Amino acid sequence: MKSRVSLPSWLALSVTALILLVLPRLIGTDYYLHIAIISLVFVILATSLDILVGYSGLLSLCHTAFFAFGAYAAALLFLHFQMSLWLTMFAGGVFAASIAWLLGLLVLSVRGHRFIITTVIFAEIGRLIAYNWTDLTQGQIGLSGIRPPVFDLPGLPRIDFSSREAYYYLALVVTTTCVTIIWRITHSPIGWRMLALRENEALAEASGVDTRRIATTAFVSSAFFAGLAGAVYAHYTGFVSPDLFYFTYTTTMLIMVFLGGKGTIIGPVMGAVLFTILPEALRVTANYRLMTFSAILLVLVVFAPEGLVGLFARIRRRFAGQGSVQDA
Amino acid sequence: MDLIPQYIFNGLVVGSSYALIAVGLTAIFGLMEIANFAHGQFYMLGAFFAYTLTRLLGLDFWTGLVGSVMGVMIVGVVLERTLFRILRGASLSSSVLATIALSIFLENLALNVWGPRPQKIPTPFETGSIAFAGVFTTPERLLMLAVTVVIVILLHVGLRHTQTGKAIRATFQQREAAALVGIDIDRLYTLTFAIGAGVAGLAGVLLGTIFVVQPAMGGIATLKAFIVVTLGGISSFAGGIAGGLLLGLAESFGAIISPAYKDAVGFILVMLVLLYKPDGLFGKRS
């Protein structure tokens, strides 16, 4: 693991930043901007899921539940108390994190398939609550009318984020901040303990790592960012419904993490962008879209389990003529 | 209060279908250590094969039943020989992700072949309803129960008293040791997959005469089957059966309290079991 960022990486980073900043000018139309914003939301979701799946080795299948809980919290706070995204973002995150903490008390005592199954079940309970608690959530009809925020501080220019372009920049700032924080967490002593938990829990425990505590930290922080992403999503689309709890969303997020390259942050970022654009591009095949999508996933899981990042590394090694196998 | 026997009966009918699906899931997990998220799709395929054979091709119910169970077994064997052979020894997350992908693939394949509209498998019986001991029922439901009992007995006898059954149990306990003493592991895997898929397909055919058949039924069945094996203890044959019946009963009684939250009953049960008995009601400490 490199502690300093090398020159080529700096260049790549600067070029990417530049492209992201002028992107609305490059792509113009509302439809492409919409995809860009959704990509950004999924970048937060995929990188936060990577904390759990990639770094801590906990395959959670309820990430979309935290996303949905965040979105519902934001929607309700906006509709009942007119709170803007500046507040609901944190409220959504904290709400999702609190639920993760409570759930963690129960499910973090089990590992392997039991953990996986319990998380699936939890997401389903969430959907049932959103579906059936109609007084609060309006059930299947969902909640609508959640507005984007307005930046209005005395002495500063007033910015209304209801245009797609303005919201794109808002999402870009939020996403960049989240990814940076997630990168810092996973590359700190806490992140090293997560890796220890992933690699060998018994050994980590023996070396003095409080594995239960580190698993809880991973679970709660991952949920926080998912909840925050939920708020960004709710204020953008203006609408939340129980469908947000669907297993399909969790699958999508997992695809992004695994195909980008789990445990790398940059991998899930690429995965999120690619797998928001690809299904849109595959719309031409209409009915066969999900079939194609799942077939691609199947092939990649079987033949490139280390994701795009691993694939690139392999190609680079081949061209560099290095034969040795090395971990990312 | 008069309705209690009725609720028990309804619960047992639905529960026996859960048990039939869970048995295969348990066997595949116990033997190959793969949590097959596509297992419910065998149940869905069984129902659609029967729908095709009876309603579309005009065969009689019993021929359709045998044909579709054999069809699902073939699908199971083909998948075991290809995908699952590659996945053997893969990490937990890879195999989970791959079977999730397979599940999405099969569901959408069904959606394209048969369409999203709920269908029904024509019943082989003339009589509409039967009443006994204060319980109203239909011959289709009685058939479901009878078949489950027969399958459970057959599987039990097969596991206890045949050479293959002993080999399966030995492999359950110690895979490497079983291979060392000359058990043909590949053959057992294929056989287990064929039986597991076939039994799930059978449940699909039988339930398709009672409820409707649609592509989304597979995913729900997988979820229910996972609840069942978590309740009963994963990789426990008796646990799968008992867990299935328990979930069926719990849902049936849960519907009295709140029909909307009927499906939540099973989930809450699982949470409680995990809290107090993490290895399941019938599971051994691992």
From TrEMBL, chain A:
It is found in: Cell membrane. One of its GO terms (molecular function) is branched-chain amino acid transmembrane transporter activity. CDD domains: TM_PBP1_LivM_like. The chain crosses the membrane at residues 7-27, 33-53, 58-79, 85-108, 166-185, 214-234, 254-278, 290-313. It holds the Pfam family BPD_transp_2. InterPro entries: ABC_transp_permease (IPR001851), LivM-like (IPR043428). It is a multi-pass membrane protein. Keywords: Cell membrane, Membrane, Transmembrane, Transmembrane helix. One of its GO terms (cellular component) is plasma membrane. The keyword Membrane applies. The keyword Cell membrane applies. Signal peptide: none annotated. PANTHER family: HIGH-AFFINITY BRANCHED-CHAIN AMINO ACID TRANSPORT SYSTEM PERMEASE, HIGH-AFFINITY BRANCHED-CHAIN AMINO ACID TRANSPORT SYSTEM PERMEASE PROTEIN LIVM. This is Branched-chain amino acid ABC transporter permease.
From TrEMBL, chain B:
Its main location: membrane. Keywords: Amino-acid transport, Cell membrane, Membrane, Transmembrane, Transmembrane helix, Transport. It comes from the Bacteria. It is found in: Cell membrane. InterPro entries: ABC_transp_permease (IPR001851), BCAA_transport_permease (IPR052157). The chain crosses the membrane at residues 6-30, 65-84, 96-115, 142-159, 188-213, 225-248, 260-276. GO terms for molecular function: transmembrane transporter activity. This is Branched-chain amino acid ABC transporter permease. It comes from Bradyrhizobium betae.
